[in-house]
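Notebook entry, structure prediction.
Reason for the run: the old model in the group folder had no record of what sequence produced it. Starting over properly, with the input documented here first.
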Amino acid sequence: MDLPEKYRDSNILIWGYGREGKSTEAFFKKHPIAASVDVSEAKPEEIDWSAYDYVFKSPGIRLAEPVWERLSAGPSQADKSVLDKLTSQTELFIESFRDRVIGITGTKGKSTTTSLLHHVLDKKPRTAYLVGNIGVPCLDFYDEMAASDSIAVFELSCHQLAYSRVSPHISIFLNLYEDHLDFYGDRATYFQAKRHITEFQDENDYLFMGNDVPELSTRAKVLRVAKPYADEAMNLLGEHNRYNAAFVAEVAKICFGMEDSEVRKAVEEFPGLPHRLQYIGTVDGVRYYDDSISTIPEATIQAVNSVPGVATVLVGGMDREIDYSPLISFIPDNQKVNFICMYVSGKRVYDEVMDSFAGGNHLSIDNDDSSGIESGKDSTDVLKNKAEGINNMYLVSDLAEAVSLAKQITPSGSACVLSPAAASYGYFKNFEERGDRFRELVNTQVSSC
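New structure, fully documented this time:
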């Protein structure tokens, strides 16, 4: 397939120069049909929009005004010049190959479902490529897609979807929880970004939806996935992963004609992904699991309900002002599980539980960055920060102190899980670095004790 002619002899700006921006630049160097291609990391107000025909915006860039909200309703004339020029490599790719694209979105479970679906479909003679928010820019596989009848299994984040004016042929909308409020402001606006996965589908397309997704208008064929996948031989832990597998099985059988037996075999062979309830080892009889991908309270609750014999959970990170009430209610009802709270959001969880269940009469220790107890305390001092009235909460400053305390309070034969219910930013580069640091601390600090 030739590159869409609309880009020929056009002036293009690549806005943002991370992984996706660099991929887009490499793509247009390989396909030199544009008149010019510039790269910028400027602020929105610093861009001369009149100089460009198309602006390839990187997903993480936020416009001063959320003009994308008006894509469906129709932009005002003032917005139109900006909207007409905004595009992305996601939009270019799906526009080119939409009949062979399966898009997956949702607040949680995207990467596991995308990877599992790719694993299942790649068993067929038809090649499947794994692309998108999973960490592989889609344009890196443009030429391979153009030269074959291959399939793209595309993980789509809310940021990738927000400005898109094209939807995949097959869409999966797993779930919707409160997240990214620091970026979108409220749940409705966040939902509006996500729902672009089906906004531009037609009656020949498919939308597979989970029970946690609100009703929405679409022209696609809608299939609700209401029951978890029944297979005790799965390597993936947790009821939520059985639902992820159910989506995969339905798509594989309905859209690609796979037999139940071959789907089951492929699902059972899938080992899971790093940092998602990943078993990292046993030390002194305690099993340690890395669930650093957990950024919302529902994910932490899932971790407690999924890991056999969990006795200690490490919670906390960046506070994005999401609603922690599910976790606030869950902690006092699960007194057999220790919750070690750290960083800003961990302290917030600690304080909110105390305020709700101990009348506000609790120990709250502040330091310069409001992240917990002062650093440098020995283990005896840390144990003194056990919450009054609620016997399963502890407050520490950071991950190192949390792991050290977990070593002391987690009994042999049980499990300790890092499941922060918070973003990693401000303390770690990303959730992968946080998970790697947890593994390092378990292998050094715990094993050497």
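Summary: The longest helix spans residues 239-256.
The old model has been moved to the deprecated folder.
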